Amino acid sequence: MADEAKAKGNAAFSAGNFTDAVRHFTDAINLAPTNHVLYSNRSAAYASLNQFSEALSDAEKTVELKADWGKGYSRLGAAHIGLQSYNDAVSAYRKGLEIDPNNEALKSGLADAEAALARSSRARPGPGLSPFGEAFGPEMWVKLSSDPTTREFLQQPDFVKMMQDIQKNPNNLNLYLKDHRVMQALGALMNFKFQSRGPEEGAEAASASGDGSPERKSNSEAAEAEPVKEDRRQEKEVEAATIAEEEKEKKGMKEQAQKEKEAGNAAYKKKDFETAIQHYTKAIELDDADISFLTNRAAVYLEMGKFEDCIKDCEKAVERGRELRSDYKMLARALTRKGTALAKMAKCSKDYDPAIETFQKALTEHRNPDTLKKLNDAEKAKKELEQQEYFDPKIADDEREKGNQYFKEQKYPEAIKHYSEAIKRNPNDPKAYSNRAACYTKLGAMPEGLKDAEKCIELDPTFSKGYTRKGAVQFFMKEYEKALETYQEGLKHDPQNQELLDGIRRCVEQVNKASRGDLTPDELKDRQARGMQDPEIQNILTDPVMRQVLSDFQENPSAAQKHMKNPGVMDKIQKLINAGIVQVK
Prior knowledge:
CATH architecture of the largest domain: Alpha Horseshoe
Shape: elongated
CATH class of the largest domain: Mainly Alpha
Structural class: mainly alpha
Order of helices and strands: HHHHHHHHHHHHHHHHHHHHHHHHHHHHH
């Protein structure tokens, strides 16, 4: 029951019905209050409704129940971010990564939490930092990698470390102002340029007098300074013109890249895959800051059956997307495409494992119904292959014989174990299902016995044992009408079968007891209770025509005589009599 409620919650969540998802997950939790996955799922649903306090409570319960599960900390971090408790979010993600260092969702969440913490810090800047706070947001690395004056600095570990420190806490900018690379980066981020000083320019331009005040410049020195100022002004003008030209060139390259993408899309629609590849490749060369070019080329490789090339492009897209802080949907698309390629390459059941893992990663980035379907299809295909790889009719026969021996010794649980193994080895053998149904009946597990008997009949409708097993289960469940129908159906295939004939005789005896009114008060009460639970009996009792017929039998004898000539009406009346609902006196 809990699994059923969970499945309904998952379906509602995938469809975006988060309120319904919360309700179904709550039902599941009431049935299985120690299942950590249910609290995790409900936390995600609450977060989607922006009910972050409830999401936090469920996330904390998840971690309490399963402290070594990375996903619980991911839920905890997300709830803290929703409540703007960024320090707590960072702590949650870091704790999760200690447990699961390779969890991409935790890595991505930590980056988001740290970025949010940095933005929060910039909203409350220290003295003198208010103009610079917004420069160190999530787009910082994109701007630095795009600017020709700072791109090479990103290859220098000490510079990267300083910028990471400033991004986490912009107040730390004061610690690095003497580094000309930091000043150059700040200029690039704020769209203006600092005039960098060389080693010689760092010295004092004037010597100090005895009293500590700078000496006055002579007229000749002042005259010499004028050309220097003019040269610097000209340098700034040239530098500004160069930067403007670079920006113009960069913009032009981006526009050209988009045109190449559009041409690639057109070729793809025409199934001219080679031409599409050429256009997408050119787009990637012109602009490496748009991962859609990579994912589009991966889609072409997928159509061409070049699965390894598709996987390489998807991995590049994910890696570059992480650097650029790309939209989660784009990352999910790349991962889904990679998973599809891996699934198409699968030749045995184990080959589906990396595909399933990749689809699961994609769903942590963005819960897309198409990705969820691909995951389900991959899991189904894996299971089918496992069954095929496990299939062995000879071993199945051996296991069935072992089960028969245990059945003779009345060791029914042991017999069930061997019959189950026989079914795994050969799921198309009706005898194994028939024998296991007999074991379940002996143990009083009637629903399981009925299910196996019905499977037996499904596999071989002419196999009389299936009908005797099913009829016996129904008889023990006191569903005599249904048992009678089962036995009669079996006689159509095997008219002389003594077990079926005996079954019919027993059912008729029980049915006639109700017709004759020979049931004890307890038997009558029990039969009436069972009858009221039967959907067919319920339909008869709620049918307006039958309600009038029953009324006529009590109050209008002449009308009742007419009803008795109607076979359909009398058949329903007989069902009510057999169920003990209507009594004949």
